[in-house]
Amino acid sequence: MTYGGTSATLTAAVEVLISGKSVVIVSTDVHLGGIYSGGLRFTKTGKKEIIGGLSRDSYHRVYKHYQDDAAWKWKDRKKYGNR
Predict the structure, then answer these.
(1) C-alpha triplet 51, 54, 57: angle, nearest 5°
(2) Is 63 exposed, middle or buried, given 0-12, 13-18 or 19+ CB atoms closer than 10 A?
(3) Mean pLDDT of the chain
(4) Residue 79: its H or E element
C-alpha cells in the first residue's frame, strides 16, 4: 500500500507492479500525480541526463503518446509546435 498522490507515490506503485505484486494507492488528493500531472517543472531544463529510471520511461511513454495526432483533443498539434 502506498499513501499520497504525488509522483513519488505513483512511481513506487509502478515499481511494486513491476515486481509482480499488487498495490493499493490511498490518497486524499483530488488529482493524482503531483508535479508530474501539473507540469514537468525541473525536467524543462533541457538536461535529459538528469532524468532516469521509471521517470524517464514514463516521460518517454507520454512523448510517444503525443506523436499520434489522435491524442491531440483540445489543441491543434501543428499550432502547438515542437515543445
Answers:
(1) 80
(2) exposed
(3) 79
(4) helix 77-80
Q: What is the mean pLDDT of residues 46-69?
A: 81
Residue 32, exposed/middle/buried by CB under 10 A (0-12, 13-18, 19+)? middle
Strand partners, 3: 26
Query: What does the pLDDT look like over 62-77, one tens digit per residue?
Result: 788 888 888 888 877 7
Q: Residues 6 or more apart from 8 whose CB is under 8 A from it?
A: 34
Please name which of 5, 17, 1, 3 lies closest in space to residue 54, comparing C-alpha atoms: 17
DSSP 5: S
Cβ atoms 9, 31 nearer than 8 A: no
Written as one letter, the residue type at 63 is Y
Report the Cα 45 to chain-centroid distance in Å: 17
